[in-house]
Design a protein that fits this description.
Chain lengths: 366, 333
């Protein structure tokens, strides 16, 4: 793949075989669909001292999903799944907002930081519980995380007393709805989390360990990898990401809604991970792919609103796009559809090539 | 060994969940204590759940009104599950309560349990939502007329437009409730009815999309609307929360909610009134959850064998911006 090729066809082939090619292609296609309906879709202007436009709002509203999906990627890479992220989003938002709303001065920085700390600690505790059940108790991840998915929303409602808590805190508003250097502040948070995640998983052996646990937990344990610890860690990380997303979602509307915050975000996150090319079987993952996947989903949502798909057919439209994306991701489908010329080549080299390039690149250096 | 471990964890998990549920229950029934003697009317009330602030206010109103009226209240929270509600009603029948009232979680599937109540000669009153079953199986419905709320929204919009001095074409964006929910369908229907009848030429709904009755939904959808239709004049939101979300989106676009875009919403929760008193919402059509006192009146009449109407509509009013400040302190939810 990395061998420089002289001829255009083979360069094209290298491009189309890159694991991010199809997700990116779909993202661009979706963005272009908007143009006939909204000619100035790509236009970005200044409003109220910050950049404003569809692209900005896609990133702004997509930020929580990107965070949750990045956390989910690592969990899925270990062969697990975390259904509890939506509930964790709700719990974090509920705790943080109810703490802030009890403050005499809601704009006091110390109070806001403490509130965020409380929320995030609660999130990590949820993750610890999930990891404990999965790694130590050997419960199926889908069942183990189902507990918090169901009970967590009830906990969030107990915290908020069944009400929507509205707060009026300028500093807290920044994280999910504010702007910094004319850009949504959440972009910086997402960039930081993604950068740290990529650095930890691709610059250290951590990513390799995660993938080996996902590939074969027992074998990893036998070669001396503490697979239990790795698993607990990824669930905690996933919950932390969900917690930050929870802060963003509640900050974006300056309100904590125990019942609806982060509802079904776990499904969108899993979808984002899959669109990004991470295998649900575990063993390999792509953070970049997940980010693109989350953007695809958010763009799809925005597109539905902008082009005016009738409400009743929203979900059908969404499903149709998702089917197309998943089919495009399937090498078998592409081989069948995109002509006989590719068939001879794709089936043979593509199969072994994909795992080799997506998987560990760093083990040589360590 | 591993199996036993699994079992233990599962047991702990179940115990923890049950503990939470127990807390919730205890919390919910704390005000059930009878305030009357043995002759007091016993009312079995099966609530939908506690899915929104509106619902919580509804529950509180029923509890307070029952206490006020001196009824014995058996309260059950179905947590949005019809099967919970059916078993609650069955236990009311077994306890031989005098009257059963409930807000059906879903529209269908009540025939069997309602027949059991009829056989036990216990009158059934529906609150807030209706059911699709034989009309003889329940006495009456105490609740809002969602279609009428839509009509009232259109009517009050006329006043709002007049007050703002708006002339000519009106481009309307609509934020719908959860797709398929009765309030969403009927509010849209009522609004369109008036629009088609009286404003066929000058009003136009240029964008309509569901915001799922949530603030986050309202904000996101409105942001997209502003992009695809920058010249929206009016926003009609099926509930306050979506309207509140939309206000933030309008502000982010550098426009003034309540001035550049006129806003009419339905419900009348406290936060909605606060926004209206700040001039960001132009009018609110009330959908009143405080139907406790009305319900207790009906319960009394029915218990004494009196006749009541098939549909007793909740007392509701409409509020314009200038009434917001006065009405604000009275908002309980």
């Amino acid at each position: 793949m990395s061998t420089p090729s002289a001829t255009t066809p083979s360069r094209w082939r290298a491009l189309t075989h890159h694991h991010l090619f199809w997700p990116v292609a779909v993202l661009i296609a979706l963005l272009l669909v908007n143009v006939p309906f909204t000619p100035d879709f790509f236009a970005i202007r200044m409003a109220d001292g910050h950049l404003y436009g569809s692209l900005v709002s896609i990133v702004l509203f997509g930020s929580p999903l990107i965070l949750v999906a990045v956390g989910m990627t690592l969990v899925i890479a270990t062969g697990g799944i975390d259904l509890s992220v939506g509930a964790v989003v709700a719990i974090t938002g509920a705790l943080t907002c109810s703490y802030i709303s009890d403050q005499a001065d809601q704009n006091a920085l110390a109070g806001v930081f403490l509130a965020m700390g409380i929320g995030l600690v609660a999130a990590v505790v949820c993750g610890l519980w999930n990891g404990f059940l999965v790694a130590r108790m050997g419960i199926q991840p889908i069942i183990a995380t189902l507990i918090i998915m169901v009970a967590g929303r009830g906990v969030a409602q107990l915290i908020t007393d069944g009400q929507i808590i509205t707060i009026n805190s300028e500093p807290y508003k920044l994280i999910g709805g504010g702007y910094w250097l004319t850009l949504p502040f959440s972009i910086f948070v997402v960039a930081a989390v993604v950068a740290v995640t990529v650095a930890l998983t691709r610059r250290t052996a951590l990513g390799l360990l995660v993938e080996s646990v996902g590939g074969n937990a027992e074998a990893s344990r036998l070669v001396g990898i503490r697979s239990m610890r790795i698993k607990i860690m990824v669930y905690m990380f996933c919950a932390l990401c969900a917690g930050i997303a929870g802060l963003m979602i509640s900050s974006n509307t300056s309100a904590a809604d125990g019942n609806n915050a982060g509802l079904w975000i776990e499904l969108d996150a899993i979808l984002a991970v899959v669109i990004g090319g991470t295998s649900l079987l575990g063993g390999r993952f792509s953070i970049g792919g997940t980010v693109i996947g989350a953007l695809v989903i958010q763009t799809l949502t925005t597109t539905i609103y902008t082009i005016g798909v009738p409400t009743q057919t929203n979900l059908v439209f969404k499903a149709a796009v998702v089917i197309v994306v998943c089919l495009l991701q399937s090498p078998k489908f592409r081989a069948k559809v995109f002509g006989a010329k590719g068939r001879a080549r794709t089936t043979a080299p593509a199969e072994p090539a994909t795992p080799a390039d997506a998987a560990p690149k760093m083990e040589v250096s360590r | 060994m591993l199996n036993r471990r699994n079992f233990l964890t599962a047991a702990v998990g179940v115990a923890a969940t049950a503990g939470l549920a127990a807390c919730a229950k205890e919390d919910g029934s704390s005000s059930d204590s009878s305030s009357g003697g043995s002759k007091a009317i016993t009312l079995g009330f099966a609530q939908v759940g506690s899915e929104s602030g509106w619902r919580t206010a509804n529950t509180d109103s029923v509890k307070a009104a029952a206490k006020e009226a001196g009824f014995r209240l058996q309260f059950s929270d179905a947590q949005q599950k019809p099967e919970n509600q059916i078993s609650a009603i069955r236990s009311f029948i077994a306890q031989k309560v005098d009257v059963i009232a409930f807000s059906p979680v879903v529209v269908k599937g009540w025939d069997a349990v309602l027949k059991e109540a009829q056989a036990a000669k216990i009158p059934v009153i529906l609150t807030d939502r209706s059911v699709e079953s034989d009309e003889s199986l329940f006495v009456t419905l105490v609740g809002s007329d969602f279609t009428d709320e839509g009509r009232r929204a259109a009517k009050i919009l006329e006043k709002v437009l007049e007050k703002a001095g708006h002339k000519g074409k009106v481009k309307i964006a609509q934020l719908e409730g959860t797709t398929g929910a009765a309030p969403a369908i009927e509010r849209a229907k009522g609004f369109k009815e008036v629009m088609d009848a009286e404003h066929k030429d000058d009003w136009e709904i240029v964008a309509s999309q569901t915001g799922d009755f949530t603030r986050a939904g309202g904000k996101q959808v409105m942001q997209a609307f502003l992009q695809s239709n920058p010249d929206i004049d009016v926003l009609f939101a099926h509930n306050d929360d979506m309207g509140l979300g939309a206000i933030q989106a309008i502000e982010a676009a550098g426009k003034k909610p309540g001035k550049d875009i006129l806003i009419v919403t339905v419900d009348g929760v406290k936060d909605g009134f606060i926004a209206m008193s700040e001039g960001k919402i132009n009018a609110i059509v009330e959908c009143n959850p405080l139907l406790g006192p009305q319900l207790m009146e009906v319960v009394k009449t029915v218990h004494e064998g009196g006749k009541v109407e098939r549909w007793i509509k909740t007392k509701e009013s409409d509020f314009m911006q200038d009434q917001a400040k006065d009405a604000l302190p009275t908002r309980k939810y």
